[in-house]
Amino acid sequence: MRFPVDHPLTRRVREICLPYPEATEVLAHGRSTFRAGRRQFAIVGAAHDDIGAVEFIPDELERPALLERDDVFVPAYEGAYGWLALRVEPDAGDWELLAELIDTSYRQVALQRQLRALDGA
Asked: Which InterPro entries match (predicted)?
């Protein structure tokens, strides 16, 4: 595991992800993944990348602008399915942007009842 469950990066991402309705953390392929039901919306660490990064599903309209950033890249494996990754460290990086990207990612995979719970909160 590159980023175990007690790693500072994992803890910070957990703080962003777990408040979402029905969000869970599941260990998969040596990484913490965050899910809305069964569908993943955030992954701590990018495959074959030892620098801290968080994978997310971008809004397709925002994808080109995100890819112009130096801290955004197409991760191995999940990148083939439209995922991107943002490089962040527990004490550095654009955490406000990451929170927005995770929100977008969650909304793309969440069930209608989860979205109603989120927007009603």
From this structure: YjbR-like_sf, YjbR/MT2646/Rv2570-like
The answer on pLDDT for 81 being more than 80 is yes
Contact 43, 72 (CB under 8 A): no
Model pTM above 0.85: yes
CB count within 10 Å of CB 10 equals 22
Please give, one letter per residue, the 3-state secondary structure of the chain. Answer: CCCCCCCHHHHHHHHHHCCCCCEEEEEECCEEEEEECCEEEEEEEECCEEEEEEEECCCCCCHHHHHCCCCEECCCCHHHHCCEEEECECCECCHHHHHHHHHHHHHHHCCHHHHHHHHHC
